[in-house]
Amino acid sequence: QVQLVESGGGLVQPGGSLRLSCAASRSIFSLYAMGWYRQAPGKQRELVAAIISGSRTNYADSVKGRFTISRDDAKNTVYLQMNSLKPEDTAVYYCHAQSVVGPGIRDDWGQGTQVTVSS
Description:
The chain is an all-beta fold and 119 residues long. The protein is 0% helix and 55% strand. It has strands at residues 4-7, 10-12, 18-24, 33-39, 46-52, 56-59, 67-72, 77-82, 91-101, 104-109, 113-117.
């Protein structure tokens, strides 16, 4: 099990930037995947960005070219740099970690951090 704590959310104007951080309670080096999801009011949780097997990245089409996911294994932390933010990016952002446990997969989630894009 890995505990995840997000930080960095807040209120930002359209066109602005924020950087989210996700600190893990243990080494992230061996995790299969880490990423960020978001959930807006009345909508399903959706994948924003993920790092798979340590290096391969995957982004939602709506954030490509604006968001960048990165990781710092020495700090057990994953980041989401968000630029050119739009009102439709407003949501609760959740950190996610996926690990292989025996024959199965384990998913761990953070508590979420609110991002509000508004003028």
